[in-house]
Amino acid sequence: MNNKPIIALDFPGEHEVFHFLQHFQEPLFVKIGMELYLQEGPDIVRKVKEQGHDIFLDLKLHDIPNTVKSAMKGLAHLGVDLVNVHAAGGIQMMEAALEGLEAGTPVGKKRAKLIAVTQLTSTTEEQMKSEQQIHLSLLESVLHYAKIAKQAQLDGVVCSVHEAKMIANECGEEFLRVTPGIRLAGGDVHDQKRIATPDGARADGSSLIVVGRAITGSRDPLAAYKEVCSLWEGN
Ligand SMILES: O=C(O)c1cc(=O)[nH]c(=O)n1[C@@H]1O[C@H](COP(=O)(O)O)[C@@H](O)[C@H]1O
Known about the structure:
It is built from eleven helices and eight strands. By secondary structure, the protein is an alpha/beta fold. The protein has one domain: TIM Barrel (Alpha-Beta Barrel), CATH 3.20.20.70. An eight-stranded parallel beta barrel has the order 1-2-3-4-5-6-7-8, surrounded by five helices. α8 links the parallel β6 (156-158) and β7 (176-179). The structure holds orotidine-5'-monophosphate (OMP). Orotidine-5'-monophosphate binds next to β3, β8 and α10. It catalyses: orotidine 5'-phosphate + H(+) = UMP + CO2.
């Protein structure tokens, strides 16, 4: 798994994906999420992988432990690099996810890293308090989810840049902080609430950044990607 910015391939189908990927000549780190996966199924993972890209399969599993375990066991055959669940599913569910992933990973192959979504980057503290009835600060809630993910032996979490440093301090530098909600300065925020720039993410302790519309929605996706890369790498 490389540490390039992860491009979210939030497209409706295969045609749009391969049209987009034509802009790039190098191996990328891409994210296949539920929009694409639910239309195209596991074949899209195989086809994108055939082009040599690293893959974050973002299906955010959240169900009873047995169901998540079986689903992860099945997904493990796809040979992706990173997968996720919702930390709100609980410690037992996260442990079951890891068990499934380990059981399904073919012998001799590397198991995908498993991370847990804490509070979505589209959630504000007010929404969390009023809708989820969690009476903590958002930072405390994210940190709590990170700690239980660590207790379940996961490899890290999905969080916003704003919580990344605190998680690194509490859970260790090697515990991954994968941060979506990335925007170029002055870019459209869309539905995201807890956002940061790629250079802000680097300074504030992200391990990996996830960037969708700032690249996929650009008239020149390659130029946008290069700008994100140079800010992220600090060039
Ligand atoms: O798990 C994720 O990838 C995820 C978690 C989260 O808290 N926030 C979040 O935006 N994401 C994903 O990251 C991507 C962000 O896309 P953009 O807002 O277009 O950059 C989307 O594919 C989301 O599904």
